[in-house]
Amino acid sequence: MSADFLTPEKLEEDANKSTKVKCLLDLLNKDGWLTGEIVNEALYHIRDRALKFPNLFQQDCSILDCYFCQFVQSAHGEWQIHAQLPRKEEFKFSKSLLKYVVGSTPELGKSWKDCRYLYAPCCAIGCHWFAVKIDLDD
């Protein structure tokens, strides 16, 4: 049994009827996937709206970008190597990753000091996007 994926061919008929479908198809790359740039742009606009309309958006969270998961994966690899050394308490996270914590990255980012949750997009093996919710209280 195969999955029923959204393809330009399947939606060609609907695209003529629906502006929303046509807009989505225009965003997909030639293989039918969203690029990291498109995902980051969408998340930027969500962060922008959260700033403009704080009563409509949950304020105890930070919405991150596609690069965050890559920085975490890199830091995890560095930590695994460093953890085998005698002075593992001297491990330092990269400045790039720490910029997320203080809210200077991504654009319109927010400091984590008042956050309970982090939301981040991740791309598995370069093709499948999924959302990650990180509970900072746990």
Automatic annotation (TrEMBL):
<dbReference type="GO" id="GO:0006508">
    <property type="term" value="P:proteolysis"/>
</dbReference>
<dbReference type="InterPro" id="IPR003653">
    <property type="entry name" value="Peptidase_C48_C"/>
</dbReference>
<dbReference type="GO" id="GO:0008233">
    <property type="term" value="F:peptidase activity"/>
</dbReference>
<keyword id="KW-0378">Hydrolase</keyword>
<feature type="domain" description="Ubiquitin-like protease family profile">
    <location>
        <begin position="33"/>
        <end position="137"/>
    </location>
</feature>
<dbReference type="InterPro" id="IPR038765">
    <property type="entry name" value="Papain-like_cys_pep_sf"/>
</dbReference>
<keyword id="KW-0645">Protease</keyword>
<protein>
    <submittedName>
        <fullName>Ubiquitin-like-specific protease ESD4</fullName>
    </submittedName>
</protein>
<dbReference type="Pfam" id="PF02902">
    <property type="entry name" value="Peptidase_C48"/>
</dbReference>
<comment type="similarity">
    <text>Belongs to the peptidase C48 family.</text>
</comment>
